Amino acid sequence: MAFVNIQETPLEIDLLEKRVAIPVNGAVLSFIGQVRNNSRNREVAYLEYQVYRPLALKEMLRIAEEAESKWGCTVAMVHRVGRIELGEASVAIAVGSPHRAEGFDACRFCIDTLKETVPIWKREFCPDGSYWIEGEDAIPTSE
Amino acid sequence: MTQANPVINPLERTHTRLIGAHMPTSGGIQKSLISGKEIGCTVVQLFTGSPRQWSHPELTEETVQLFRATHAETGIQELIAHDSYLINLAAPDPAVMNRSRGAFRSELDRASRLGISWVVTHMGAHLNQGEDEAVQRLIESLKLILDETDALGWTAGIALETTAGQGTGLGWKFEQLGTILKGVGDHPRLGVCMDTCHVFVAGNDIRDAVTFNHTIEEFDKLVGLKYLKVIHANDSVKGLGSRVDRHAHIGEGTIGFEAFRLISTDPRLLHVPIIVETPDAETMHAVNVGKLARMASGIIGVQLQLHGSYSDLTPDSTVCLELPCGSTLVELVDAAISAYPKLEGIRSHCRFAIKDTVIDTDTLLQEGDVVALLPPSSGG
Ligand SMILES: [Zn+2]
Ligand SMILES: [Zn+2]
Question: Does the reported pTM lie above 0.90?
Fold first, then answer.
C-alpha cells in the first residue's frame, strides 16, 4: 500500500522507512532531497515551496502506485512545503522491495516523475532577491 | 464560504427577471427595502411582524406611510411577506386553530396595507391526529379567510409554500398540494410558492436539465404552474429525499449551480419572482442575489487561481472573471490576459486543473468553477 503526504513540518525519514520495511522486502532504501546553499551560481539562503494540493496528492499517489505495480515494491513518499532552511529535507522517498535492483529503479522513477508532474513550485531566496523556479527557468520575483 | 474578490471587467446584466432576498427588518420594516435595494434586489421578502410571536404591535398609519414611501423611492418592483412560524391553519386543537386564523388574518391585513402582493405560508401540520382531516381543516381555513378578506377588499394573496416533509408538516407532496388547491377552488388570491430546497429534500431531483424538467412537469400536472407566484431559491445542506430543511448558499449545497441556472432561465418560469432565503443575510445575500442575476443573464462567474511566479503578477492570486455561458478554458485564458496583459505567458506552457483533475482547452466551464493555473513544476 503506497503512502503519500504533503506537510509543512520537518520530514521524519525513520518513520517513512518503517512503513516500507515489511517482512517480504529484502531491501529498504530511501532518497532524500535537501536544500542546497547554491543554485545556478547564486547563493541560496532558504527555500519556500508552494503546492496545489488537490492535484499534487493525487499525482503523488498515482506515481507511487505505478512504481509499486511495475517493480513489485512498497513506496512511501512525502514532500514538505512552506519555508525550508538549508540542509533540511524537502522530499523523502522510501522504497522497500524483495531485491535491491528493483528498489533503486523504482526510487529513481518516483523522484524523476515527481519533479516532472507534481504541481509544486520552489522559490529560492537569495541575497539579491527571490526567484521562482519553473521547470528550467528561474524567474526573478517582481515587486 | 468567504466572499470572493471583486470581478474584473464584469459583463452587462441583460435579464428582466425579478430577483431578491428575504431581508432583515431590524430598525423598522422599511429597512428591508433599503438594504434590499443596496444589494441589487428587484423584489424583497420580509416578515411584517415577529415570526416567533403570536401578537404584534399595531401597524400604525405612520409606519405604513413610511414603508410605502420607501417602497416608491427604492423602486423595488414586487414585495412578498412570509408569515409567522407559529401559525397552523390545519391545527387539530380548536383553540390553536382560532388563534392561527386570527393571526393569519392579521398577516393579510398588514400585507395589504403595505402593498405586499403575496403572503407565503407553510401549510401547517397534522400533529399525528389524522392527515386527511388536517387537509380538510386547512381547506376550510383558506376558504373562510379568503372569503372574509375578499369582503374587506384586502389585496394580499396567499401563497402556499411547498414544504420539506419535516415532522408532520403538510404539503411536501405535490399531490397533496394539488388536493388542497382543488379543495379551496380557483381564486385570484390563492397561489403557490416553490422552494427549491424543500422540493429537493422532499424527493424531487432538479440537479440537471432532465430531472429539473421532470420535476417542473410533475408540478404542472399535480399542482399547476398557473398557481406559481413565488420561487424560493435555496441550495440544500441535506441530500435528495432527506426531508430535512437546511438551506445552503446557491451552488454550494447538495443541489448545485445547474438547477439555479435552469430555474433562472426557464421560459415557463420567467414571470415568477425569485427570493433567496440563505444563511448569513448580512454578508451573503448580496453574493447569492448576484449569482442568480448573473445566471439569469446567461453569464457564469469563474475564478482563476494563480500559482508560482504568476501569483505575483496580479493584485490577488485569485482572479474573478465573468464569461458568457458556454465558454471554455480558451475564453477564460483570453479574458484573464485581457484583464492582466502580464499573464500572456499562461497561454503557452501551463497546465490547468479543476479540483484534482487536469482540464483541456475545450473544457466547458460552469458557474462557480475555480480553475488552477499550474506552471511547470519544480518540486523535489
Ligand atoms: Zn422558503
Ligand atoms: Zn426552508
Answer: no
